[in-house]
Structure formats: C-alpha cells, structure tokens
Amino acid sequence: EVQLVQTGAEVKKPGESLKMSCKGSGYSFANYWIGWVRQMPGKGLEWMGIIYPGDSDTKYSPSFQGQVTISVDRSISTAYLQWSSLKASDTAMYYCARKSIGGNEFDYWGQGTLVTVSS
Amino acid sequence: DIQMTQSPSSLSASVGDRVTITCRASQTISYYLNWYQQKPGKAPKLLISTASSLQSGVPSRFSGSGSGTDFALTISSLQPEDFATYYCQHSYTTPPFTFGPGTKVDIK
User: Fold this and answer.
1) I need a surface site. Which of A6, A35, A42, A57 has the fewest CB within 10 A?
2) CB-based contacts of B79-82 (< 8 A; 24+ apart in sequence)
3) What is the pLDDT of residues B16-34, one digit of tens each?
C-alpha cells in the first residue's frame, strides 16, 4: 500500500526556521517525483514544487522559488520542505503528494502538516 | 504560467441531481487536465486524470470531458458523500501545474 506520512503540526514564531518531512512507503521511492502543495486557511490549492528522488532534480513554482527549499534523502525515502525564516503568511496546511509515473497529476497524498506562525 | 479558472465557485444541489463544474485554461493544454475532490479536513483525492480517465475505485457517476481550453466534471447523480470541494489542475508540459480556485458543492 502506497503511503506518504508527514510530520505533525508545527507552531513557530516569525523568523524561525522549519523543516518538515514526508516519508514514502509501499512503492519505489526513488522512481517517483514528490511534490508539495500549500493550502492557506479557507483557500485553494497552490502547487509549490516537485523533486525527483533519483537525482534530486527540483522544479519550483515561480511563486515559491527562493521562499522555500525542497530536498530529499533517498536513503530513508523522505522528502523535505524547509524555510529559513518563517513569516506569518506561511501559516497554512502543507501537503506532500506523489506525482504519477505516467503523467503530472498527484495520485497519492500525505495527510498534511499544519504550520502556524504567530508571535 | 497557465492560469486556471472554474465556475461556478460554489453551488447548492440535492441528492440525485446532475451536477456539472467547468474549468478553463488560459491557453490550450490539450487533454492534460485533472480533477480532485477535497472533503473538509482531508487531503485532496485524485478523481480523473487527462480529462476523462477515471481513477481506480472512483464511482462511475463521475465523468470528465473536454480538450484544449474548456473542460467539465459531471456527477450524474449526486450522492451524500459527494458534497465537497472540487479542483481542476493542468498538467501540460512544464511546471507549475497550477490548480483552479475550486468549486464547493453543498447541500441545498
């Protein structure tokens, strides 16, 4: 069974750093792109970026380029999303998802990590 | 970047109704259009890929159509478990593979 298990909820202060994780299981992790999607409170889905665990090739949405870093540790089947300095506007639910091997849709999703940034 | 729009932004319907949601891309995307369902507090779920390919396990009352810039998701007979928000997403050539703003389907 394909599973993506994400870090638990985080509460941070503005200016703090954060690195959240997404661990894949039940499939060949190295062979599928993993993506990240933001959902701000009460809002829609925003495509942030994707990474290929096989060679760490990464593609960002222009809206998120330079704002976050996507990385991967293939040895432990885990992808990461990190911030060096959080802002209140980073408060959101963040989902990781697996991109299907034959297309660019996300066929499996993690349960989401809620990030709250507040002073 | 390709922009996606959806209409309506919300709709109220009754169990048994036929419901159609439309999605439009800002440029042609061939048939590279996906549909997701999201229920409150849950992760999105892929329903349909490449405009009309129903994912395994998705009920046949869901169908997708369209190509080019205009697409539709149809629920032939709305069931209680279908009340949710629906998002389209393009998956044409290069990222970002943007989502539409969503259509909330609630109970009349």
Assistant:
1) A42
2) B79/B15, B80/B15, B82/B19, B82/B37
3) 999 999 999 999 999 999 9
Q: Which two tokens stand for residue B104?
A: 């909330």
Question: If you search the block for the tokens 């393009």, which residue do you land on?
Answer: B90
Distance (Å, whole) CA A79 – CA A64 = 17
**A107 has pLDDT over 90:** yes
- Phi and psi at B73, nearest 5°, equal -115, 125
Q: Among all residues of chain A, which has the CA nearest to that of B44?
A: A109
The per-residue b/e assignment along A35-48, b for 16 or more CB within 10 angstroms, e otherwise, is bbbbbeeeebbbbb
pLDDT at A70: 98
Structure tokens belonging to residue A40:
């701000």
